[in-house]
């Protein structure tokens, strides 16, 4: 191989390596951004979703007339 071919191969390998590092950095950042916070995220509850909260009927009941 000539020196010019070696330089071309080195440049290609360098560019592919840089692209791989950039993709891994983006993927790693996305994984960190979407990761759970461990036990803190598992204990989160929304009111009314579990059976521990009383159900309130949103329709009003008519008052009896005397």
Notes on the structure:
There is one protein chain. This protein is an all-alpha fold and 66 residues long. The chain has helices at residues 3-34, 39-42. The longest helix is centred in the first third of the chain and has 32 residues, at 3-34. The mean pLDDT is 77.
Label this structure with key terms.
mainly alpha; 2 helices; 66 residues
In short:
With 66 residues, the protein is mainly α. 55% of the residues lie in helices and 0% in strands. The longest helix has 32 residues, at 3-34.
The parts where pLDDT drops under 50 for at least 5 residues are none
Helicity range of the residues? Answer: 40-55%
Rg from alpha-carbon coordinates: 30 Å
Which band does the percent of strand residues land in?
under 5%
How many individual helices?
2
